[in-house]
Amino acid sequence: MSKKWVAKRITVNLALEEKRKLENYCAMTGRTATDVVRELLRSLQVESEASVRG
Fold it and tell me: Which InterPro entries match (predicted)?
């Protein structure tokens, strides 16, 4: 049985320089902004995910 992947759309407000930086990085690496943001989120260090969930 395969896992079902559920997507949730979010909106992120960026300063103009942040937007340019993201666009330049994406152009240089050939990756989408979505992929870059997902990788950055996955790389965040969280002390205890259980404490965040309650």
Answer: Arc_rbn_hlx_hlx, Ribbon_hlx_hlx
pLDDT tens, 1-54?
567 778 899 999 999 999 999 999 999 999 999 999 999 999 998 876 656 666
Answer yes or no: is 8 within a domain.
no
**Number of domains, the chain:** 1
Parent domain of 20: 16-44
| Residue at 21 is within a domain | yes
SS (H, E, C) 1-54: CCCCCCCCCCCCCCCHHHHHHHHHHHHHHCCCHHHHHHHHHHCCCCCCHHHHHC
